[in-house]
Design brief:
The protein is mainly α and 110 residues long. Helices cover 75% and strands 0% of the residues.
Length: 110
């Protein structure tokens, strides 16, 4: 079954067609995951987040070229997750540093 038929069936609510559409575009997720290599995150974790974006694209396709629409949703899902993770880490770091910054420095003369 070609992509256009799958898109038509998926838009009409066919879950099997939607699943096939997702399976056919998993390579797109890996292509995007490669762009985040070496940034301190596991590729498998980013892949799973990207798959969420791909599933959202298959569920909410607006027409047009599916891969273009899916690319944006996958990219946005990954970026949103990484931004959230970075903000959470920064908040944890700053809350750990507040007690240290509030202490008066002491100087001992030996």
């Amino acid at each position: 079954m070609d992509t256009l038929e799958l898109l038509k069936k998926a838009r009409s609510g066919d879950r099997v067609a939607r699943n096939q559409l997702v399976e056919q575009n998993v390579g797109l997720v890996w292509n995007i995951v490669k762009r985040f290599h070496g940034r301190g995150y596991e590729a498998d974790d980013i892949f799973q987040i990207g798959c969420i974006g791909l599933c959202k694209a298959a569920a909410t396709d607006k027409g047009g070229t599916f891969s273009t629409y899916a690319y944006r949703l996958i990219w946005n899902e990954i970026c949103d997750a990484l931004i959230y993770s970075t903000r959470r880490q920064a908040a944890e770091f700053s809350s750990d540093m507040i007690p240290l910054l509030a202490e008066e420095p002491t100087v001992s003369i030996a």
